């Protein structure tokens, strides 16, 4: 997990996003125990309460689960979570293409626009 904070959103949301990214890229696998709150706080150089808030957010999203006296684990139902994420991304892509067609853009123009946005986003990071 890599923590690179910016001033655009609260630190706890950035920690949650970093852990979520690690889960979706399979740095953490389904059923795997997460580092403790204290370990994550040390890695991220933040307060344990900030980390706890991030973990609560991930629990609400169904990405992690708490096992009494054992700690926090990546959800066992992660495959379904990944499928839902892919399905939502596809729905967003379809909506985007429909909106671009309504504006008179063809598929190639819509794809070029997305590639341009991705390029701009990656060069600003």
Secondary structure topology:
Elements (H helix, E strand, L loop, with lengths): L10 H14 L12 H8 L3 H13 L3 E4 L3 E4 L3 H25 L4 H18 L1
Antiparallel strand pairs: 1-2
Helix pairs in contact: 1-3, 2-3
Structure description:
This protein is mainly alpha-helical. It has helices at residues 11-24, 37-44, 48-60, 78-102, 107-124; strands at 64-67, 71-74. It has two domains: 11-76, Orthogonal Bundle (Arc Repressor Mutant, subunit A); 79-124. A hairpin with a 3-residue loop joins strand 1 (64-67) and strand 2 (71-74). The longest helix is centred in the C-terminal third of the chain and has 25 residues, at 78-102. It is elongated, with a radius of gyration of 18 Å. The mean pLDDT is 88. One of its GO terms (molecular function) is DNA-binding transcription factor activity.
DSSP helical segment count? 5
Uncertain parts = none
CATH architecture of the largest domain: Orthogonal Bundle
Which structural category do the helix and sheet elements fall into?
mainly alpha
CATH superfamily of the largest domain: Winged helix-like DNA-binding domain superfamily/Winged helix DNA-binding domain
Distance between the termini: 17 Å
Mean pLDDT: 88
